[in-house]
Amino acid sequence: MDSTEELLGKTLAEKPTITEPQVGDLKSSSSSVFRKKVVNTLTSAKNLFYMPSFKIYDSGVSGLYDYGPPGCALKSNVLALWRQHFILEENMLEVDCPCITPEVVLQASGHVDKFTDLMVKDEITGACHRADHLLKDFCNEKLNKELNLLSTEKIKEYGIVAPVTKNPLSDPYPFNLMFQTSIGPSGAVRGYMRPETAQGIFVNFKDLYYYNGNKLPFAAAQIGQAFRNEISPRQGLLRVQDKSHPRYSEVEDLEFLMFPREEQGPGKDAVILRLGDAVTNGTVLNETLAYFIGRVYLFLTRLGISKERLRFRQHLGNEMAHYAADCWDAEIECSYGWTECVGIADRSAYDLRAHSEKSGIPLVAHEKFSAPREVEKLVIIPVKEELGLAFKGDQKKIVEALEAMDEKEAMEVKAALELQGEVEFRVCTLGKAEIKKEYQRVFTPSVIEPSFCIGRIIYCVFEHSFYTRPEDEKLNVFRFPPVIAPIKCTVFPHVQNKDYEAVAKKISKSLTAAGVSNKLDTTGTTIGKRYARTDELGVPFAITADDDTTTVTIRERDSRDQIRVEINKVVRLVQDLTNGVRTWADIQSEYPRIPFKKINDLP
Amino acid sequence: MDSTEELLGKTLAEKPTITEPQVGDLKSSSSSVFRKKVVNTLTSAKNLFYMPSFKIYDSGVSGLYDYGPPGCALKSNVLALWRQHFILEENMLEVDCPCITPEVVLQASGHVDKFTDLMVKDEITGACHRADHLLKDFCNEKLNKELNLLSTEKIKEYGIVAPVTKNPLSDPYPFNLMFQTSIGPSGAVRGYMRPETAQGIFVNFKDLYYYNGNKLPFAAAQIGQAFRNEISPRQGLLRVQDKSHPRYSEVEDLEFLMFPREEQGPGKDAVILRLGDAVTNGTVLNETLAYFIGRVYLFLTRLGISKERLRFRQHLGNEMAHYAADCWDAEIECSYGWTECVGIADRSAYDLRAHSEKSGIPLVAHEKFSAPREVEKLVIIPVKEELGLAFKGDQKKIVEALEAMDEKEAMEVKAALELQGEVEFRVCTLGKAEIKKEYQRVFTPSVIEPSFCIGRIIYCVFEHSFYTRPEDEKLNVFRFPPVIAPIKCTVFPHVQNKDYEAVAKKISKSLTAAGVSNKLDTTGTTIGKRYARTDELGVPFAITADDDTTTVTIRERDSRDQIRVEINKVVRLVQDLTNGVRTWADIQSEYPRIPFKKINDLP
């Protein structure tokens, strides 16, 4: 699952797809002020959640970002929670495949031919632009029309020119979004950086099916980087199965914002629906799709994404990827507008069929019937006399071909011949239906694939978690849920004092040994300033050692309330609070809180 | 850190560098029998620790492997332990940078020019071979000579031909080991898949230094995939600092196998040294290098690598990478021989200097002196009269150049001129030393870089963890330490029974909620067979529910001893046992064990 973060950058630098009408000037200006404040806090060298990649060089590559220390820790925690929420709780089969993929695999999947964007070139400078982006901008500015009414051929018709240079543009041409490379020293084997993590699962279907005891449905997952030369990569995870779901009842009562295809139009908005109702009335096509929509909703809200700013939008017919039969995106509202963060696609049997055909290895499942089933089959009986007269020496071949035809095929041949007026004599009759016994069904399973762009999700978590203290707008806070907070706890002496420091150091060391990331702060700055510093890093808890030799205080970040805890219990308590075993609310009865108002922890 | 596993395959498929004389036939044959047994167990579809990538295709790419479900879990646990052992316990600054790297970065680092292997081509078929491998094989077979006496030019001289085809070979030519690609649709920006994770840290030096409060030393780390077109990628992690180490005392008493450069020769072997002694006598050059050798030793043995089959070998002069000043490899003995798994390189200031020069951004540290230091500087005083006569109009330039020279430079010019017999007149005198005040020292810090090939380490963990029960060689066991075991616990009813099953299901659900990976087994097979199945997956604990309604048994994998634990305590106990808080030995007093001999859990 490393790293979708490859292109966290792209998320930030490129305008993500915005599916709503452009926001008005006023709103967009306040959005951009908010964004600037959050981004400044995140990228400032004292916080270093992330920073532009290769920035000491003018490398010709912009829009890539690195995660710095707290960003790495947050990402690692988000991925651990993802593993817990999906792999462990869903009993998924995880795989981990190479990023570099031989061409044949991506030919079968359709990526070599179809994974393209239409580009146009500035005919003077050679700079490239996405045809659909130029059209969209043109529509928004000049025509106020829906993009999907226009095809990219309209670029010439409307006289659209290159942005900035205003030079003429070439005709649109497809540009493949994969990074191409070659494998091995001979240069003969062409390969690509994988454009999605799903293919690695598909090509392992047979082994995974066997590992699962030849039983369907099963879920498989892969966490890892995908590489796209233009757009954001995603996390891949999928489920191979029929379309009912055994745990569907756990999610059907969830209610949240949904935005079905037919409801999308000018001035329309997402509405709150009960997931079970959306399945009943056919808005969501099947239980498995609904189950994963529900699980994704639960995952994102566990990360701290606001329920009011999260919706599930169904793709319009012309939006879907080449492999998708249906697709719902989890979109999160941030300062860029509603941003696609998770795609939940019904890929039907597209990929497994494609790999079966290309590799010649059947990727199918067998459903054994509990008892053999009797199946009626119509039988084709060639009229040998007529055929003998007509075909002479070839009669035998013709008879075999006719006998091998199934009913549907035979009817098609008949219809085709009749259309051409070529049916001059009766070559065969359809005999009486014959009863055959079948013991199993062989079929290519369907796939529901939720895929996560962890980079975008993390960026939205940053925005949704950010606030400033009401009494001072310079006091920035990230209200990360403890389970994903990069640093779980700061530890400090109340004032500079050798004994307090000794206690603080001992606690810090025990926290580290217990795997709880923490920061010891023995600087002499005021406790208020130290709290402010940890708030800006989103640290949920702060332990302070003072003149009480048996207890310390724990301060919670958002309420700023404190409790007193015995020193020998503090590590276990913070561990429980940060790995989700207990919440701050849970422990109120055991540890009476000292509300914030009564003490003064401001600078 | 995803994935060094990219090329776990290479580790297995290619013969890793073997630094010892070839093992004899007998030993090598028993090695290969052992390897076959381990590998069969690992790759069998019922276990699926790993499998060949893209195997449904004849893709032209061999030697790549995917991790299957238990392999993924193990890798994820190894990386979590790595994070705990290095990032958390060493307070390292973690970063996470893109895999695709613009060319300019890798020009500065030297990879574009120097990161090559010498190849030769089969002149008929075009197949490529590594020149050093062919020579090595030739030496081993024909000459019984040391490779390092030979250069690759000897290929022609010795008449070496292509293996298998026996065709003539081309002259050796350098082949760059990086995967090249291009970034963006114009194709104008050349990039490479990063060949190591270290460069991402170097180019972020300035920000990381600031984030660390402008203090040295600090350690930075990156976990991630590196891509090499021929050899195994590694995990990167490094430490930027001066060469003493504050925590050196924690490792100096460790004793283990070391193999210094000057001890390596025919018939010589590694010897057990105390790390502190190796530093004192100059075998290991500095404390920081020694500190990381010690930490790597502790990490590998925590994973279950046997102390007797782990050694630290110093690189010979002709083995080192282009950036290395010194290098020690952690080598693990497995069925392939002694295999390099961790490299601990002293990169001195090579990379930071290279990036400073290429980018024009100084990547330096400032050491402020507690009090200004007075420094004596010799002053060069040009003899203007003489120069005026000799150089006329150019006199001014010459005077300036002379004044700008420092003492060393001036002396060199003087020596050079004298050598050529060109000193005909005195152009300057060295004036009296002048006293200047200096307030800080500006310098390019040195870097010690331990880098881990997680794929190879995991493979060695597999081999070192594997054994068969003495009473039946079909009973395979992996004795993974609980902290890295892919599945921590199986849960089953003692026999098929509704009540037992209900208890087992409830415990399994609680374990999942607590983040403990577990497997519920309600099949009707004998308990002995179920134990055998979990042993083969390396599951350290098995919980069995029986007719006691308040307690269950926990069975430990290696001793096969059991304890009885109250149902409401079992989840916390297994959690503690598997995350390293308590060991099986620790809990003997609290929970008296029922030794294996007294009960019969065999099939």
Mind explaining what this structure looks like?
The structure is a homodimer of 603-residue chains. Chain A is built from 19 helices and 28 strands. Chain A is an alpha+beta fold and 603 residues long. At the A-B interface, helix 3, strand 3, strand 4, strand 8 and strand 9 of A face helix 3, strand 3, strand 4, strand 8 and strand 9 of B.
Quaternary arrangement of the chains shown?
A: homodimer
Which of globular, elongated, flat, extended, rod-shaped describes the shape of chain A? globular
Chain pair with largest interface: A-B, 89 and 89 residues
Task: Please report the number of helical segments of chain A.
Answer: 19
Structural class designation of chain A: alpha+beta
Rg of chain A (C-alpha, Å): 31 Å
What's the CATH first level of the largest domain in chain A?
Alpha Beta
Binned strand content of chain A: 15-25%
What distance lies between the first and last C-alpha atoms of chain A, to the nearest angstrom?
41 Å
Biggest sheet overview of chain A = 9 strands, mixed
- By CATH, the architecture of the largest domain in chain A is named 2-Layer Sandwich
CATH homologous superfamily assignment of the largest domain in chain A: Bira Bifunctional Protein, Domain 2
Spatial strand sequence of the major β-sheet of chain A: 3-10-11-21-16-15-14-12-13
Report the helical percentage of chain A: 25-40%
**Total domain modules of chain A:** 3
How many β-strands of chain A, per DSSP?
28
Question: In the CATH scheme, what's the topology name of the largest domain in chain A?
Answer: BirA Bifunctional Protein, domain 2
Which runs of chain A of at least 5 residues are low in confidence (pLDDT < 50)?
1-26, 231-241
